[in-house]
Amino acid sequence: MSAHADALRPIRQRDLMVMRDPQLWSKWPFLPVIRPSTEGEEPELGVLYDARQVSGTYGYTATVFLCNLFLLPATEAQLFAAPKRVYDTMEELVQDGWTID
Predict the structure, then answer these.
(1) How is residue 58 annotated by DSSP?
(2) Where are the domains of the chain?
(3) Nearest C-alpha neighbor of 63 from the set 40, 79, 42, 43
């Protein structure tokens, strides 16, 4: 494993810990996340959403809704219809490069 990968490990573990626990989200029920781009493109912005606690809706724990925290849709239905990246686990989400913004 490279020194660079070792340097990223504590950050990813912290991100994963916070992403898993909505009680730690400073903007609850949302957690702003970002994924740096490659090849000079703009980074992707998104939010995690605590649908389980807000409306009892399951299945969105490891889903990044591709929107800016300051330009969120007005309703939960509109948020669910927004473009998104869906992962099976929170670990996959972090491995794909998403970090807390």
Answers:
(1) -
(2) 3-100
(3) 79
